[in-house]
Design brief:
The complex is a heterodimer of chains A (about 70) and B (about 160). Chain A has about 70 residues and is mainly α. Chain A has five helices and two strands, in the order βαααααβ. Chain A has a single domain, classed as lambda repressor-like DNA-binding domains (434 Repressor (Amino-terminal Domain), Orthogonal Bundle). The longest helix of chain A has 11 residues. The model of chain B has no long low-confidence stretch (mean pLDDT about 90). The chains are: A mainly alpha (about 70), B alpha+beta (about 160).
Chain lengths: ~70, ~160
């Protein structure tokens, strides 16, 4: 899954710690999502989209390998 | 992914204290050759207790009080209860990613633990196999703790490079 979380975070001038605190997860989680090492839950995706006032699809995008 | 089966975070410290006490007593017993301190001789209720006799028949005592020294029982309980508290107390920031690391580590520890046991069933015999079984009581917890804290530390290290 491709993500533009880091870009959205930079646009909004949030550190990983800021964002983690806002959505109630650890900094490790935000880092793992940005690095593509962790596929997050729907609830967390919706929370992130809510914080950035965008749609979930604006931050996360399926890749070919997600269908395999 | 939230689970109701994790212990409260505060038990982690209690776990470390109990576990280290158990480890210290075990080390002390192994290094000094201390076995069965007299003041720990006591009556215990045995659901089952079979004694092996080299000359003659084995004897079984079931559902009765027996005389026993509880030194190694105390060590075993300290290690297991301490280990469970360390392994399954919530992390300070327990969340879905840490729960995933926890589940992955538990699977990994289970596979390795039973892999070692299968190997031991095939290649280790008699009294040596008994020692493997004794060690096996603790290895799954130990493997889990090592793996879980290692991946947690690794993900924190990655994080240190980011803002």
């Amino acid at each position: 899954m491709k993500t533009s979380l880091k870009v959205e975070r930079a646009k909004n001038d949030f550190t990983q710690a800021d964002l983690a605190e806002r959505v109630g997860v650890s900094r490790q989680t935000i880092n793992a999502i940005e690095k593509g090492r962790y596929n997050l839950s729907i609830v967390l995706a919706l929370k992130l989209a809510y914080i950035f006032k965008v749609r979930v699809e604006d931050i996360f995008e399926l890749e070919q390998q997600d269908w395999e | 992914m939230k689970t109701k089966f994790l212990l409260p975070y505060r038990l982690k410290l209690v776990g470390w204290v109990l576990f280290l006490m158990g480890l210290f007593l075990l080390g002390f017993a192994l290094i000094t050759g201390t076995e069965d301190p007299d003041f720990l001789n006591t009556e215990v209720f045995a659901l089952a207790a079979t004694r092996i006799h080299i000359f003659g028949e084995d004897t079984s005592t079931n559902f009765k009080f027996i005389e026993n020294n509880v030194f190694f029982e105390i060590i075993g309980l300290l290690l297991i209860i301490g280990g469970i508290c360390i392994a399954f107390s919530k992390h300070k920031n327990e969340d879905e990613f840490i729960s995933k690391l926890r589940l992955d580590s538990l699977l990994w520890a289970t596979y390795i633990n039973y892999g070692v046991l299968i190997f031991s069933i095939l290649f280790i015999y008699w009294l040596s196999f008994f020692y493997v079984l004794v060690a096996n009581m603790f290895t799954i917890l130990l493997l889990f703790i090592i793996r879980f804290y290692w991946v947690l530390a690794k993900s924190s290290k990655f994080e240190a490079y980011e803002n």
